[in-house]
Amino acid sequence: MPIKLGIIGYGGMGMWHHKNAPKVKCVDVVAAYDIDAYQVDVAKKAGLRGYDNLDEFLKDEEVNTVLIATPNDVHKDLAVASANAGKNVIVEKPVAMSMKEIDEIIEAAEKNNVVFTVHQNRRWDKDFNKVKKAVELGMIGDVYTIESRVHGAGGLIYGWRNKKECGGGMLLDWGVHLIDQILYMIPNKVVRVYAELFSVLNKDVDDYFKLLMKFDNGLSAQIEVGTFCLKPLPRWFVGGDKGTLVVDDFEGHGEIVKLNKLADKFDAEIVETTAGPTRTFAPRPEEVKDHFELPDVDTEWIEFYANVRDTIEGKAELIVKPDEVKRVYSIIEAAFKSSETGKAVEL
Ligand code: NAD
Question: Where in the numbering of this chain does the Gfo/Idh/MocA-like oxidoreductase N-terminal domain appear (predicted)?
Fold first, then answer.
């Protein structure tokens, strides 16, 4: 059965889906609903049936799947209404504003026997897939630390993203992607979460945060998102007992560094730093290190729509599963709690 998509919220991301979803065979966008009359007009000019009324939109019989790309605080009501109208439901990230809201969406989807998934598109990012493959292949041995970091320089956050009541702030906006990536890569249980949220330039929402996740195998993962970092650090730093991996950017440029056989012959000497000596931090000479390219990956985010289509047809399992979405949200809730209390949250 071809997907006939109706988009709710024909703004930046709604238009992006309109442009990209039809690149997949048997996926068409046919309609859009928006509360803003201007955006409805834009949708009509782009060739869609445009609606300014939700009930009318949900009565559109050609639409079998609804994609919700509105501000975050209205995702839940729109998702439940769409499921109750018998439509399959794709929700933009972050799926909702609380675990309770996610449960309501899942319940409505199950009751109406429709597919429900979330657009966690950064599972298909090149940088992430290189790290995932290298970790899974054991290219740097047993991994003890992962740092996933996005440093932007813009500073100010605009529109509804700058309003707490709309689900603004960076933990919900980018944290949800970066947590999802880590949990998709590391199947172990998270036992502890510690987070600190800051409002550096934007007073109502978090525009910088640090989050630590401790896994039951001892691995520690740190996520850091900052909107005002004028000297950005690399996108990924991963430490293993056989080497170090660094990815610089979203394109996945970076390398793996390991010791070679000459390392056995290297005896660290005490070096003098400005105010004292150290042997532990004496630099290793270049000749004892080997540099390796990161693994090749073949990743196409457009697979997301194909997977939804195939799941609706009963030919595939969802890649972004509701219980994974809940797992990510349990970390977000713990991070908010940790930041409020100043204490780590045991899970
Ligand atoms: P936007 O402000 O550009 O567009 C939102 C649209 O929703 C606007 O046209 C607005 O009029 C409409 N709208 C608001 N309330 C509505 C309602 N109750 N019913 C119907 N329409 C309504 O926002 P955006 O940047 O497109 O973000 C939309 C969603 O997409 C958010 O959840 C955001 O987190 C997500 N997003 C995801 C990615 C990604 O990479 N997955 C990237 C950007 C945004």
Answer: 3-119
How many structural domains is the chain composed of? 2
Name the 3-class secondary structure at 98. Answer: coil
Both 190 and 337 in a single domain? yes
User: For ligand 1, is residue 121 a contact (CB within 6 Å)?
Assistant: yes
pLDDT tens digit sequence for 50-89: 999 999 999 999 999 999 999 999 999 999 999 999 999 9
Biggest CA pair distance of the chain? 76
CB 289 within 8 Å of CB 260: yes
Q: Could you tell me if the CB of 276 is within 6 A of ligand 1?
A: no
**Measured from the CB, is residue 58 less than 6 Å from ligand 1?**
no
Intervals of the chain under pLDDT 50: none
Beta-ladder partners of 67? 7, 90
- Mean pLDDT estimate for the chain: 97
**Test site for ligand 1: of 92, 124, 163, most ligand atoms within 8 A of the Cβ:** 92
Q: Does one domain contain both 244 and 205? A: yes
* Cβ count within 10 A of residue 276: 6
